[in-house]
């Protein structure tokens, strides 16, 4: 099974490296100084789950050398998704599974428009990881979980193969027959979590203790759940309480990946997180005032420090 990792950052680098270290045929798409470091020094993962160093990595250089692939793990940021998807088409064969791991609820639909529905599955990544230096991925904490599933059918030999490869590599991976619900389950937590940590420029631990930030977070979770339900997503009855419990149990020092981007002056995924709550809420006739307030406060930073 040949796996293409489209975007070798925190998510793609961590899971791709674990799969490669277990002997899977993994080809990485990377660019810039990070790609150059991977070419000359390999790819290193620093993690409480076990450090690893791939001395040699297969980098995607061109179509001929990469050939056709069986699985694509899509792990570029949302603002890079359409352009990255353009490069995929020549690498796909009839039953290639393209698995988006982005935050938000819109990646699969974007990929379906670009590539066609047959290829595109759904996926969710639970991990906190990033590029610490060129060629080096830093994983924070121990959480490293993948959930994926078919969007058009229940049975999936192609994803069963991926699940087996992940488990062989020590990755906590689950194949689900309700992937749309899983993607929304993460979204109704993650969009508010990203927004509130960015608004406070602080950790979830500090948010929990703050008499202003915590109620704003709760209101945003309630709004996101209302949007999901209005769009026909069958979330569990107790989803708000369950998501708040999740937030209460997170490590005190944990930050969202969007806060790390904000602190580093990078572009934000705001428009696919809080922005999507507003957009999808409007379409469904759901008011989202707490999310709107957060969006408007963060919007000046969405293009990053360089404004590009
Ligand atoms: N980081 C985390 O802990 C988590 C992130 N997520 C989600 O996963 C997705 C990926 O996030 P993350 O891993 O943090 O992102 P990163 O920015 O760490 O990694 C993405 C990588 O893809 C590269 N890239 C983008 N487009 C291309 C291209 N066309 N060709 C080659 N390389 C490309 C980027 O390069 P460059 O830097 O040059 O742009 C970057 O190195 C996001 O949607 C995020 O919300 C989900 C769960 C946890
Ligand atoms: C909350 C977390 C770390 C969980 O995966 C995440 O997805 C993010 O911050 O982007």
From TrEMBL:
InterPro entries in alphabetical order: 6-PGluconate_DH-like_C_sf, 6PGD_dom2, ApbA, KPA_reductase, KPR-Related, KPR_N, NAD(P)-bd_dom_sf
Domain Ketopantoate reductase C-terminal, residue spans: 179-298
Entry keyword Magnesium: no
Listed GO MF terms: 2-dehydropantoate 2-reductase activity
Keywords per UniProt: NADP, Oxidoreductase, Pantothenate biosynthesis
EC number(s) from the headed UniProt entry: 1.1.1.169
Pfam family of the protein (one): ApbA
EC main group: oxidoreductase
Keyword Oxidoreductase: yes
Associated pathway: Cofactor biosynthesis; (R)-pantothenate biosynthesis; (R)-pantoate from 3-methyl-2-oxobutanoate: step 2/2
Domain Ketopantoate reductase N-terminal: 3-151
Substrates-to-products reaction catalysed: (R)-pantoate + NADP(+) = 2-dehydropantoate + NADPH + H(+)
Biological function: Catalyzes the NADPH-dependent reduction of ketopantoate into pantoic acid.
NCBIfam families: apbA_panE
Family to which the UniProt record says this protein belongs: Belongs to the ketopantoate reductase family.
Protein name: 2-dehydropantoate 2-reductase
Organism: Benzoatithermus flavus
